[in-house]
Amino acid sequence: MSDDIYREIILDHYRNPRNKGRLTDPDVTIHDSNPLCGDEIDMHLKVEEDRIKDIKFEGRGCAISQASASMLTEMVSNKPLSMVKNLSKEDILENIGLTNLGPARIKCALLSLKVLKMSMVKYYADKDPKSAGDFHDESVKY
Amino acid sequence: MQKTALSVDEIRQDFPILKRKVGVGGSKTLVYLDNAATTQKPYVVINAMNEYYSSYNANIHRAVHQLGEEATAAYEQTREKVAKFINARSADEIIFTRNATEAINLVAYSWGRKNIKRADTIVLTEMEHHSNIVPWQILSQEKKSRICYLGVDDQGYLKMTDYERVLKKEPVRLVSVSEMSNVLGTILPLKEIITRAHENNVPVFVDAAQSVPHLQVDVQKTDCDFLAFSAHKMLGPTGVGILYVKKEILKEMPPFIGGGDMIKEVHQQNTIYNDLPYRFEGGTQNIAGVIGFSAALDYLAAIGMDRVRNHELEITRYALSALSDIKDITIYGPKNLRDRGGVISFNIADIHPHDLATIMNEHGIAIRSGHHCAQVLMERLDVAATSRASFYIYNTREEVDLFANALLDARRIFRI
Q: Do A6 and B414 touch (CB under 8 A)?
């Protein structure tokens, strides 16, 4: 089963993460970590006309958390915020091809989605505090 | 009399869980190498708790009926056994808590709030578990005292020169150190630390969670003032911690948890507290757990802590040798076996410890990965996490071989 988890694509994103780094002038920056294992993700976003114009992440942690973050940034780059809002944990697990992770490791895979959703909440709260509530998403709870 | 080596095969028969199959479709026999987190329990411990619940379950200290007297006797006999196990002068110096963490919190709350003053220094080390950091931080925030950390050198030893400097320069009011690091396995020079502290009239708290299960500990010999450990790391059940405090200090300590059993008389506006050590055991205690722990102490005493230590030295020597053959491995902690316990922290190439633990799990091997509740040390080592294998009396060379082979498989899976 480990051979199924640590496929070439996961190891590639782990060792050569896409969109890793910072943005010079992000609209929103959010940090979160997984206290169980210490995985950390920072997301930096630039938003234009309700689309994700640019996205970068920083982080450290296991192959699953870091590859998942890298693949998520590719997935949402240049996509409308409404798409991000509707992203479910199933979408993420399917995107990275890991649909049978155990409860301990699923947190690693979903940390970046959690941080992305948090950054959406912050973005809307900064813009218009009343609308932020729309972005609280039950699916991020695991 | 020269004692013979441990009969590991016989010991393994006493632990039902070691027959457990795990992994995909239950295809692997469990290899349990997470003993620094908690150890497995022999039948005698499980049965002792069953026996209490099924034949003399009653609350302790108050009841006049037969069951209550039997339960009280079993509970108090355990206190005597604990005192003997660590060579305390009296069972009155032994307090049962929920775990070692609660024992440290008890002292920080009770002794600490009374004795630590503004601008006092509390000395810890960079090797401490969070349980020996956070209670002192809470206290320091309240008292405006400060915490000073003794450094760890690159070989994993405590920097004793730091200690001398701090004792000389700072208004040190307490030293609190672990006797054995749960990450590096380093055994600290406790006698020296305590002697130097006492020369400066500073009491010493020993976090012995990793040492009492594995080494002969003698509180009179080291002359520590406080000592804490947990039953579940030494074959006993979870939910039982032990606090030892020198009687002359304990006598002056205000209560921690107020309630039933810790009192003599309660009136509308005032209470006369109970005698030692009951004053510090408010509310109904984990009676079954303490009785289970009693069986664990008997079990370890029958083996002898010298043989426990020798077995761990032997298995650690074997494991260090097997692991050092693996390419790209970094092993943390002292190289000299005599200075370390049966704990090996390591990293392999760019395989994150959590990924490694996942792969080990599929081989039926339970190891730990992460910061091991020692983030201050992780920062010092400049790593986010490590993998950790830790041994106990039932671990075998064959298990170490399985473990080393699984590490090679991890290298294959990560294509290195």
A: yes
Find out if CATH 3.40.50.10170 is the number for domain B47-301: no
Whether residues A105 and B354 touch (CB distance < 8 A) is answered with yes
The tens-digit pLDDT sequence of chain A (142 residues) is: 788 899 999 999 999 999 999 999 999 999 998 877 778 999 999 999 999 999 999 999 999 999 999 999 999 999 999 999 899 999 999 999 998 888 888 999 999 999 999 998 899 888 877 765 555 544 444 4
**A107 and A36 in contact (C-beta within 8 Å)?**
yes
Contact B217, B86 (CB under 8 A): yes
SS3 A92: helix
Look up residue B241 and give its DSSP letter. E
Structure ipTM: 0.88
- CA pair distance B334, B337, nearest whole angstrom: 7
Partner A contacted by B353 (CB < 8 A): yes
Which listed residue (B373, B374, B378, B381) is catalytic?
A: B373
Nearest to B125 by CA among B155, B156, B150: B150
Classified by CATH at the fold level, domain B8-32+304-413 comes out as Aspartate Aminotransferase, domain 1 (3.90.1150)
At B356-398, the pLDDT tens digits run 999 999 999 999 999 999 999 999 999 989 999 999 999 999 9
Q: Do A38 and B415 touch (CB under 8 A)?
A: no
